[in-house]
Amino acid sequence: MEFIIPTTNLTQIKFSLAAKSDGGAETLLAEYWNGSQWTNAGLPISQTPIGANFTVILFDFSSVAVANNNPAFKIRLRFDGADMTSDTGKAVHINNIALEGQTSSLATNEQSIGKNNVKIFPNPAGQHAQIVSNEIIEHLSVYSVSGKIVHQSKPQKLETSINLEKLETGIYFVKIKSKSGETTLKLIKK
What we know:
Layout: E1 2-4, E2 10-21, E3 27-33, E4 38-39, E5 47-49, E6 55-60, E7 74-80, E8 92-103, E9 110-113, E10 116-121, E11 128-137, E12 139-144, E13 149-153, E14 157-163, E15 170-178, E16 181-189
Antiparallel strand pairs: 1-7, 2-6, 2-8, 3-4, 3-5, 3-7, 9-10, 10-11, 11-14, 12-13, 12-15, 15-16
């Protein structure tokens, strides 16, 4: 199972669920997408046994940097056991899925990445928003609050405009990448 879980404005991410097995699997394994592959690096516990009674299982992503403030954070759960290829009619039951995190500050209009200063205006914006940087903007992505990419571009210049005409009114997150790194700014479409 894969979960796309936007963690925008959150740090210290913890993912929990209740699980039980009637023999469908013996172990639950957790991984996350690091941008290029599935991994469990940095997870204190990445696998846990599944018993016959519902038990709360917690996966702590606090020490996983990519889990923080990520509008496209992904978690994958897999099952393991003695015989995972037979269809015996046995199942694993999961409920009470939850995500916890601490709120982090996110600038609304301006943020610095190393020596780079990035501004987005007007904010709130109507049909267009301008982004100005003192470093070349290599890549720009706009995400909805659900983590869906609604716009991408590679401006390769110091200033660019985003056409917001087709976007619904609401909150969006603009991820901007330059040679100094990347930052995410909140954008409000009115």
